[in-house]
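Checked the freezer inventory, then went back to the computational side. Two predictions to log before the end of the day. The first one is the construct we discussed on Monday; recording sequence and tokens without edits.
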Amino acid sequence: MFGRRRHTEDMTPLGIALRPIRSGDGPALKELIDDVDAEADFMLREAGEPPDWLADPEAGLARLIADGSIFFLAVADGIPIGSIGVMRGRNRRNRGVGTIGLGLRRAWWGRGVGNALLLRAEAWSRRRGLHRLELTVQTGNARAIALYRRRGFVEEGVRRAVFRHQDQWRDEMVMALLLRRSPKPHPPLVLPKGDPPAGDGAVQVRRIVPDDAAAFAQFNLRLLRETPFLMRSPGEGLRTAPEAREMIADRALRDEPTFVAVTNGIPERRVVGVLGLHGSDKPNTGGEVHLGMGVLRDYWGAGVAGQLMATAENWVRDRGGHRIALSVFSHNVRGLQFYHRCGFVHEATNRFYSFRRGRAVDLIQMAKLL
């Protein structure tokens, strides 16, 4: 089912004004988000844990808007009472996807404000050509789930034990609204593997270091050229050694490790595989770590991916993590089979997430509980 124009934008309750965010609204938005987090029992964040981009509200909003995202405020008597954001995907392959974040002061629940904000976000997204809106909601938040269903959002799966609330791990539901009819699905794609070049030598897996910057940049350029399963496409992401060096330093500061599979052959050391981890430092979501991995085609089936995965899993276990999450495109047959062998479970299917040659590609969300 895809979303239809069943309603218009004129369903705003009397006395409420809806408007886009504008310069100077950053501090008021931060205060609103802090208040909503403190009032509600169903938020991923606790009170005093705003999103990272709100550390500097004005600068953070400016970056989001420059990226093509939007925030709308619901205002009563000049005071913000609710907000909705639509965060657009940053890559060509997910630029048509918008992730929704909705927040409303408790005193205004059940008065039509949330519905009006959703209508405004949907209308904005349609005008800008988005084909998919998605969100997550705690499975116990029956009021919000009912609202999203009324607006046409459909359940796509459940992410298990995502955050901790009142000393219990809670699940979250993945929901989405398709804004246009999905084209035919892309068929499974199985690419032949290559053979490791002679002279490359043994492969060693270790944490990336600044001296790997040039080899990592070369790896990234080749990986994007030869691999059609990644979120980024050729021309996106870092391309030069200075950019790679800056990334390495930034991730080291945040203690977000990047592991590399490196050959020590002739004529030079090469990076042939990479695995990156990133997570949250918030108390209630800090147990989840997200994983992204890529291996050069010459090394598919050579055990490199398995070495990287084992190293990453040991790192997460040593730090008390309880969940590793990843996503993989539905036509990536080899990747899906590998992650299943590693113990990852299919949790959600993000329908019509991207295109490839005019066909729809879903995004499969998987996770492993440790």
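The second is the one RB wanted added to the comparison set:
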Amino acid sequence: MKLISALHVLLAAAVLTALGSTPIFASECEEEYYGCGGPVCYADVPNMIGDMGLGRRALLTNNGVTGDYVGAHLTPAGGRLFKAADNNSPIPESRFYYNFGYLPEAQSFQPLIGATPGPIRGIHVRLHEFGAEWAFWNNRVSAQLNLPFRCAANTGLDLSGGPGTYDIGSTELGNVSVALKGLLYRDRQKALSVGLAVDFPTADDVSFIDGNGDLFRVGNDSTTISPFVGWQILPSDDTFVQGFFQLAIPLDGYQYSIDPAAPFLPAQQFTFDEQTLLNVDVGVGRWLFRTAGNEGLALIAELHYTAALDGASSVYVPMTNNTFTQDDFSSYNATMGATLKLDQWTFTLALVVPLFDSPDRFTDGGMALQINRAL
């Protein structure tokens, strides 16, 4: 049913896009919306910054005897899923871009030292994304390709030998995503668009050895589709408000397998159903100054809400005394940044912070750097 609903959204977007010659796009005076040098226009509005995936699915595994656990960001999605609000605009555009994110201690591990659980250790996560977006059909539709990479703890973790066994220098490909976006409505002060993104399971499986020597493997098997709606409002000559509503709908679950260290215990397999996520993102910004050549500096503030629409689930494996848990979580994050526009280039630097202290909070914040080159 989830797939059918998402396909209905995509079909509706395609039909409405095909009506590009009708007033639904309000394409009259289109030349006034691009290349403006006076009052703010769509070409002047910086992209939303996003929250670097601070709100996302997380898997926890806990051993009832040793206390070993693997914390957030060790799900096999390469660190994050496509999010429409991350360095993106509701308006189709042609560009190349690079995103960098730094999340201090976003991974956490508790190794077994001898027979005693050791101290919890945090691992800094670095995110790198390279992508391109192409606008066509008179800038009414665009296609986007996103290539994410993550530098963090290796997907082949060994928690049985203490903190010195971690490999934290590896850079791994995440889940590659593609997206299609089309304008539904646009006039001089507001715009509305819809889109659909697909995350493909290109990231490596996650495997780790716990303090007992048991081998765990989490398969990256699920494709995720994400229908989204984007909107933009220009209240005055120098201010702008924009946002996205998005659903991340998994088409399958994760396959988990356990190979116990004890030779007399059989290997086991089970499936975790992935959670459907709701993302609501809103941002407001103001130009501090702009030149006639569309260069300038803008300040931006954003709020981001992410929630799992499915309930929490857990699986207990008595043979190895491990419990796998997928939390019923929600998160609220704030982003504050500045965007500098120089000719065809835009540079954005921002801080992202969780707003509430809760079990779903796995880091105290992060930094984002985004570079766009318009085509």
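For RB: The mean pLDDT is 76. The first strand starts at residue 59 and ends at 63. Let me know if you want it refolded.
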